[in-house]
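SEQUENCE, STRUCTURE TOKENS:
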Amino acid sequence: MAKIDAFFKLMHEQGASDLHLVAGQPPMLRIHGDMERVKYKVMDNDDLRKMLYEITAEEKIKTFEETGDVDFGYEVAGLARYRANYFMQRAGLGAVFREIPNEVQTCEQLGLPSVISKLASLPRGLVLVTGPTGSGKSTTLAAIIDEANRKRKDHIITIEDPIEFVHQSQGCVVNHREVGTHTKSFSAALRGALREDPDIIMVGEMRDLETISLAIEAAQTGHLVFATLHTTSAHKTVDRVIEVFPHDQQEQVRSTLADGIRAVITQTLLKRIDRKGRCVALEIMIATPAVRNLVREAKTYQIPSSIQTGKKYGMQLLDDALMDLYNKGWISPDEAYQKANEKARFRPLLRTAPADFTEV
């Protein structure tokens, strides 16, 4: 057993999402969104290096020493998988580990609306799951892929950096590919995937123009593509995808995206006040003909209105989801205000002035 595994065991027992190990500081855990110190000595750079390198493959060590950053996956048998990131900082090495549960939770177990699980049965198109870092995008995507894996008889390819949730083939054949280990880049893997007879392709992150272009192309050529982006609303997601392209290509991309887009899910995690833990608030945009016309005609600013009037299709605005959680007594007004898109709606609920004075 590696020395660092004791920290992973503690992390698991405490229900922490992240473990931070930094030279010159004591270890810290992120529990329910807050950082908490571990009662352990301050680690010097040499001790930390020895601990980290014990679980790191030679090629990853080489990459880290050449670039100052590296990502990879690590698994503790019978416990969980971990997404690792090593980085160099002023006092020496630093590392952050995100726990990825061994068991994939279903849409029902996560309490997601029924329309989310229905996305797994789409024959083709592009579905985007968006939100800030640490908002649970990977967990939602894993639940959708699990739904497809259990109920379809297809070929699923996941492209990730690194591999997070591992799906055992059930009704589907599932192949996991890791960027840097099994393929050079997201774009190279996507290009290759089109020749690998996939029905469903999951792209861990659409990072650059080429990856976004290939994902849209794959959706257009009869594949069901799931991917993530770091955006905070459905209409901003559509704008972000289009604005990546050169100005002279954007009109054509609008038309192509309007044909291929099927849904955008934007989510954020919030601290609960009724009990320990966190809950998720979702914005859901389903690409009805009306929504696709808005994308095609560059009227994405009207998408929130279409979401508001499309509740019968399972659509909802993030701010409506936040208000619902507040009315249930699950979250504080301050938490709702911080995560809201239209903050003016939540300002009257605050007992004191908002912490972020720039929003006023």
In short: The radius of gyration is 21 Å. The mean pLDDT is 94. Residues 56 and 74 are 8 Å apart (CA to CA).
